[in-house]
Each structure stands twice: as C-alpha cells, then as structure tokens.
Design goal:
Layout lengths: L2 H18 L5 E2 L3 E5 L5 H9 L1 H4 L10 H13 L5 E7 L5 E11 L4 E8 L9 H15 L5 E7 L3 H9 L3 E12 L2 E11 H14 L6
Parallel strand pairs: 5-6
Antiparallel strand pairs: 1-2, 2-3, 3-4, 4-5, 6-8, 7-8
The structure holds coenzyme A.
Length: 213
C-alpha cells in the first residue's frame, strides 16, 4: 500500500473504531447524548467558571475540579431524581455541553430541565434544540413524565427561543428574582406538557432522525 493510501486506511480505521466504541444514550443527527464521564470534568470546569456562560445559570461560585467531581458523584447518588447527560458532536465525538432533568417528581410526573453548551462558538447552531428534543423524548417516552419545566433569566433570549422551538410555553414571571450582572433579573417560567410534545416528537423523529414507521 502506498503512503497516502496507508494514511487514509489508518484514518478510516480510527474513525470506525471511534464510531463503534462510543457510548451513546440517545442518537441525534448532529449531536448525541451520553452519560457524563470523569474525563469530561476538566472541560466542564472551564465552562462552569466562564462568566459569559454562568451569567445565564444559577451557579455563581468559583468551581474547582474537586467541586465538579463532587457534583458528578452526587449526580450518580441521586439517579432517581436527576438525570445528567453530555451533549456530544456526532461528527467528532467531542463533548460541547451538558443537559439534565432535575428534581424528577415521579408522583406528579414532573421535572425541570437545565442546559449548558460550554463551547460558546457553537451557540445558535441548533445543537441545544436538538439535544433538548432528545432529552424530552426520553423524559416523556421512557420516564413517562407529564410536564417538564424550565426557568430562564429575562436577558436570555436565546434560551427562550430554543425552548419555544421545543414546544415549551410561558407559564409566569417571577419579578426581580435573581441578582445578576448588577441588577435584579426577572425569572421566566416555561413548561411543556406531554400531549403538546408528542406531535413535535413525531415530526422530529421523521424529519431530523430520519426514522420511518
Ligand atoms: C441556551 C442554549 C442551551 C441553547 O442552545 P443553542 O444551541 O445555542 O440554541 P439553538 O441554536 O438550538 O437555538 C437558539 C435560537 O435562539 C435564537 N437567538 C439567539 N440569540 C437570541 C436572542 N438574543 N433573542 C432571541 N433569539 C435568539 C437563535 O437564532 C436560534 O433560533 P433559530 O434557530 O430560529 O435561528 C445555549 O445557547 C447555551 O448553553 N447558552 C448558555 C447557557 C444557557 O443560557 N443555558 C440555559 C439557561 S436557562
């Protein structure tokens, strides 16, 4: 085999290995969801300290690797009520963020979602919406939840738009609820019910995931 062909064959072999050996919890078109692994923590620590990211979140303390490790351990311990997943690019298998279902209440069949795409250059590319559709598919079709909520600060138009694309609707506003960026921000509450999600899921399944009945 010539040098260039050998190099190409090696690349193909490496790609097949990467695809066959990846851990996939829910597969999408551009992103997939998988469990959060210990090796994700260094990148997650960078994101969770970045003020451009955290201004939109409830965390505001400096977070070390130790804090992140404790957070992951705690997530494992509270599996019944919390699901955390990594958002990973299909093409490269790189983690770009995390997403979760928190405070899962099995009696009332409710939970609250939270999302972070830590790689800021990848905001506004539809990855957050696709990942959220995959997570909601799991929430409604596997966990049998009935209602999924989300809370967004008033200056986070991007998050509100992404939620709207997944079918969330406004439920109310907590006035001047969170002190952020030197002012009190309103917290906007959103929710999606199972019956409103299912038609969107059918469309997503066929048009984005390319599934046929
Ligand atoms: C919120 C987040 C998960 C959304 O993921 P994403 O991949 O960036 O979102 P998407 O590309 O799927 O959708 C964003 C939409 O908002 C639009 N948008 C961007 N900025 C906007 C703004 N200021 N106002 C209104 N819409 C805006 C985008 O154009 C896009 O809509 P389109 O697809 O119709 O063009 C991601 O941006 C993120 O992690 N941000 C930082 C942390 C955060 O805000 N977490 C959520 C806390 S509630």
């Amino acid at each position: 085999m010539k040098g260039r062909d050998f190099h190409l064959a090696k690349l193909i072999k490496r790609r097949i290995f990467a695809v066959e050996n990846r851990i996939v919890f829910r597969m999408g078109k551009h992103v997939y969801l998988r469990p959060i692994l210990k090796e994700d923590l260094p990148l997650m620590t960078i994101w969770i300290n970045d003020p451009e990211v955290t201004q939109f979140l409830l965390v505001s303390h400096p977070m070390s690797h130790v804090d992140e490790e404790a957070w992951l351990e705690d997530l494992h311990k509270r599996k019944e009520t919390n699901v955390g997943v990594a958002i990973v690019l299909v093409e490269t298998n790189e983690i770009i963020g995390t997403m979760g279902l928190h405070g899962i209440d099995h009696r009332n069949r409710r939970a609250t979602t939270g999302s972070v795409i830590g790689r800021k250059a990848l905001w506004n590319k539809g990855y957050g919406t696709e990942a959220k559709m995959l997570l909601l598919g799991y929430a409604f079709n596997t966990l049998n939840l009935r209602k999924v909520c989300s809370a967004v600060l008033d200056f986070n138009g991007r998050s509100m738009k992404a939620l709207a694309k997944c079918g969330y609707r406004p439920e109310g506003v907590l006035k001047e609820h969170i002190f952020r960026n030197g002012r009190y921000a309103d917290e906007h509450l959103f929710a999606i019910f199972r019956e409103d999600f299912l038609p969107l899921w059918e469309k997503f399944r066929k048009e984005v995931l390319g599934q046929v009945d």
